[in-house]
């Protein structure tokens, strides 16, 4: 139990990722699939940020003097944050393309429902 | 100048993509030559790198010169070019260039009035693919994976009818794969604190096998499997590539999946090691069974299809099984076969889709029933098609024969007989399909779309499409004849050193 509380953010990560994956796979509505995608990506972002976080850590900006021998225990890991900046950009781009496609599909079939669209396509 | 070659390979198509996107807006006519120029620069640089790396060994390039400072830790992104990289870089940029030359007329007819941003997207796709094949950083690999994926979603959505839905499904699956990959990268990072492939390959063997390492490995593997459409995750591929415009499919089908296979090889044998793979005694047989299943299912479904493009898509799925199986055999002939097949299959799929594109250009579609009389009306295209199919079946001296030869040798050495059986079965199925097409195609009564003027005996696709198709087909035979050189000078150095001693 103590372990669970100490790693609380990882529990949230797992929950977020499960919600995301479930709605990407099981939801019939294309917009809900897109939302699931965003939730999954948020889960991963939280995961990476949790890796780099430390208690009472400072911003990872080093002075000239500390540059050669940084005291890594007092600064947060900057790498994970930089990685997630990139991942957020990728996520936004993917979501944009996804929503754009969903809109095109709506114009074609007047529906966001996967079953209805598939039925329409069979005609 | 030669020191900068690794970055020029990527910068060519990247700058071309950006410039082409702007010129498409101002002067649409300019974007095509720009993209061809970018791809040509990239291909020249890649070709030069092949010889430099074969002579002098792997080249390391630090982006922005960040790695050359004397720190104990690695800062910055590294680009590594070794023999496996050069092989793939040349394949990707060469096929992309040839396809760009080939696609012009096809795009003009298929996407009339909508082709404005097509070439910019194509160039961006090639940037992503080249980036995956050159980067020396596993997170950077993820970014390039997504660059390639995003542009391919757009390229597929250029198609008509079901293309939007196919592209959307691909997007959902592809994002899931990318997310799994990213999560795996996170696990590897927790354990080692570095993302640099060279660093990781030094650190991982020194650590005891741990859960985090294993979970990371499995997640990364699942991620790239989704991206390469390996058997249980292949659902998105046939629809996406069939409903995409033929020009998009001609560049996506040969390259996108092959590059993901490369990513798997890199993760398996450079980041993790051969010993690590051999230690996974529980997983290895399962993956080999999955590869067999991929080949068998791909072959079976290709038999049931009536659309030529759909058949070709199921061929891709079974070919992916060849490569994954070859890699997981983890012995010298198996890996040689897998790496050789990377190049061979990219060339074969490219030739196949180019020939199909020529047929589609005249017929408007590629249903098997429409192929009546096609052998009389389009003899050159169909000759190329038959040679390509022969290569896929594995008739010597085409390249398909040699990759199968190595793979069967590897499977026999490892005693994995079901894989051998699957390889032979897939050849048989391809032969059946070829003969079925020959039977329909030699029908005297031609389809109205290619009948044209009965007085004119031939109704070929335009020369600008025919020449690249024939060149690619001759390339298959040339590749087959050059097997010995390729394997003994390049692939032998790309296979993990422990296997070649």
Automatic annotation (TrEMBL), chain A:
It is a multi-pass membrane protein. InterPro entries: CPA3_antiporter_subunitC (IPR050601), NUOK/Mnh_C1-like (IPR039428). Its main location: membrane. The keyword Electron transport does not apply. It is found in: Cell membrane. Keywords: Cell membrane, Membrane, Transmembrane, Transmembrane helix. The chain crosses the membrane at residues 6-26, 38-62, 82-102. GO terms for cellular component: plasma membrane. This is NADH-quinone oxidoreductase subunit J.
């Amino acid at each position: 139990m103590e372990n669970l509380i100490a790693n609380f953010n990882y529990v949230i990560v797992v929950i977020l990722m499960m919600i995301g994956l479930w709605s990407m796979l099981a939801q019939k509505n294309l917009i809900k699939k897109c939302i699931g995608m965003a939730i999954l990506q948020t889960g991963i972002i939280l995961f990476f940020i949790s890796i780099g976080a430390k208690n009472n850590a400072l911003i990872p900006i080093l002075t000239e003097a500390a540059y050669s021998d940084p005291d890594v225990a007092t600064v947060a890991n900057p790498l994970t944050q930089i990685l997630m900046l990139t991942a957020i950009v990728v996520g936004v781009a993917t979501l944009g393309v996804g929503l754009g496609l969903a809109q095109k599909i709506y114009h074609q079939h007047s529906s966001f429902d996967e079953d209805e669209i598939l039925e329409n396509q069979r005609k | 100048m030669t020191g900068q070659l690794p970055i020029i390979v990527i910068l060519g198509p990247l700058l071309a993509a950006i410039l082409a996107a702007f010129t498409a807006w101002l002067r649409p006519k300019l974007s095509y030559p720009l993209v061809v120029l970018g791809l040509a620069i990239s291909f020249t640089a890649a070709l030069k790198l092949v010889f430099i790396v074969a002579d002098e060994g792997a080249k390391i390039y630090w982006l922005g010169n960040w790695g050359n400072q004397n720190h104990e830790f690695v800062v910055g992104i590294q680009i590594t070019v070794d023999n496996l990289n050069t092989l793939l870089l040349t394949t990707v940029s060469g096929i992309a260039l040839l396809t760009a030359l080939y696609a012009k007329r096809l795009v003009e007819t298929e996407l009339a009035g909508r082709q404005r941003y097509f070439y910019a997207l194509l160039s961006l796709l090639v940037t992503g693919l080249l980036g995956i094949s050159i980067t020396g950083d596993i997170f950077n690999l993820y970014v390039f994976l997504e660059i390639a994926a995003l542009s391919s979603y757009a390229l597929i959505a250029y198609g008509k009818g079901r293309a939007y839905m196919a592209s959307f499904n691909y997007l959902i699956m592809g994002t899931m794969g990318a997310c799994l990959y990213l999560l795996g990268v996170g696990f590897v990072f927790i354990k080692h604190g570095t993302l640099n492939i060279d660093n990781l390959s030094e650190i991982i063997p020194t650590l005891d096998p741990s859960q985090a390492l294993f979970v990371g490995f499995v997640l990364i593997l699942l991620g790239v499997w989704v991206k390469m459409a390996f058997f249980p995750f292949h659902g998105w591929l046939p629809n996406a590539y069939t409903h995409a415009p033929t020009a998009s499919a001609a560049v996506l089908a040969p390259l996108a999946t092959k590059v993901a296979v490369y990513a798997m090889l890199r993760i398996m044998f450079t980041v993790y090691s051969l010993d690590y793979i051999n230690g996974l005694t529980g997983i290895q047989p399962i993956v080999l069974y999955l590869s067999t299943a991929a080949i068998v299912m791909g072959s079976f479904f290709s038999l049931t299809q009536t659309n030529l493009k759909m058949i070709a898509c199921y061929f891709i799925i079974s070919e992916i099984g060849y490569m994954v199986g070859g890699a997981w055999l983890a012995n010298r002939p198996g890996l040689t076969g897998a790496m050789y097949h990377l190049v061979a299959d990219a060339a074969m799929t490219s030739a196949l889709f180019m020939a199909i594109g020529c047929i589609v250009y005249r017929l408007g579609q590629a249903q098997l029933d429409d192929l009546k009389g096609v052998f009389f009306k389009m003899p050159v295209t169909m000759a190329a098609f038959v040679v390509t199919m022969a290569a896929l079946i594995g008739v010597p001296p085409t390249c398909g024969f040699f990759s199968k030869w190595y793979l069967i040798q590897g499977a026999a050495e490892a005693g994995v007989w079901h894989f051998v059986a699957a390889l032979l079965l897939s050849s048989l199925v391809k032969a059946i399909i070829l003969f079925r097409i020959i039977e329909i195609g030699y029908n005297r009564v031609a389809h109205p779309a290619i009948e044209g003027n009965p007085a004119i005996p031939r109704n070929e696709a335009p020369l600008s499409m025919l020449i690249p198709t024939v060149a690619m087909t001759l390339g298959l035979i040339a590749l087959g004849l050059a097997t010995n050189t390729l394997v003994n000078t390049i692939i032998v150095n790309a296979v993990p050193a422990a296997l070649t001693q």
